[in-house]
Inverse folding.
């Protein structure tokens, strides 16, 4: 079974930084794109960033472009999201997501809370 | 466009069918057969219910079906059951960024 477990969330000051991590298991990690999706308290889902299987292709929502950096370590089955220049409206639950083939999200982690 | 448009709420009685709409544009829903639907129970992570407009992942009940006409996609839940009470979100590939989600629909089973 696919399993995605996020870590690294918590409380940060405005303008501060956090690094989220997600460890994946149950599938060939390097063969799939991965993404981060966030959900502010009481609000809907918002796609934040995505990365191709090799790590070369990276995509960002306008709301996080220039502040967040997505990366991956295929040797350790890990996905990362570096959150910089944090703002109050970045407060959300952040989900680690596995992409299916193509452009849908077929497995989700339980989510990790970031509070700014 | 910041989000696809969904009705805020839809309700139905057990055994009935309901349909949730998801309206976009030619840049997203209308331009690609890459619409997916997600179910989210309170306090839980979303779950994929439909992908590529009409396809069901293994393990998802065949009471869930998807369709699309023009710039509007739809999710139909047949034989509505209590466990279907949840929030539902559509999503589409969008050429300008990658993904766009819908505003979300709360389904209530009366």
């Amino acid at each position: 079974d696919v399993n995605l477990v996020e870590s690294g969330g918590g409380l940060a000051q405005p303008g501060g930084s956090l690094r989220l991590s997600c460890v994946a298991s149950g599938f060939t990690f390097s063969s799939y794109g991965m993404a981060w999706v966030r959900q502010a308290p009481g609000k809907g889902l918002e796609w934040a960033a995505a990365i191709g299987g090799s790590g070369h292709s990276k995509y960002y929502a306008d709301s996080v472009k220039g502040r967040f950096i997505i990366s991956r370590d295929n040797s350790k089955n890990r996905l990362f999201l570096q959150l910089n220049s944090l703002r109050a409206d970045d407060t959300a639950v952040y989900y680690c997501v596995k992409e299916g083939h193509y452009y849908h999200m077929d497995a989700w982690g339980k989510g990790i809370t970031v509070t700014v | 466009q910041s989000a696809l448009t969904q009705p805020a709420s839809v309700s139905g009685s057990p055994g009935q069918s309901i349909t949730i709409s998801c309206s976009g544009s030619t840049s997203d829903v209308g331009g690609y057969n890459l619409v997916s639907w997600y179910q989210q129970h309170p306090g839980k992570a979303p779950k994929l219910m439909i992908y590529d407009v009409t396809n069901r992942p293994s393990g998802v009940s065949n009471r869930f079906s998807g369709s699309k006409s023009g710039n509007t996609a739809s999710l139909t839940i047949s034989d509505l059951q209590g466990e279907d009470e949840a929030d539902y979100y559509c999503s589409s590939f969008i050429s300008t960024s990658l993904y766009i989600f819908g505003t979300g629909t709360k389904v209530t089973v009366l």
Observations:
- The longest strand of chain B covers residues 86-93.
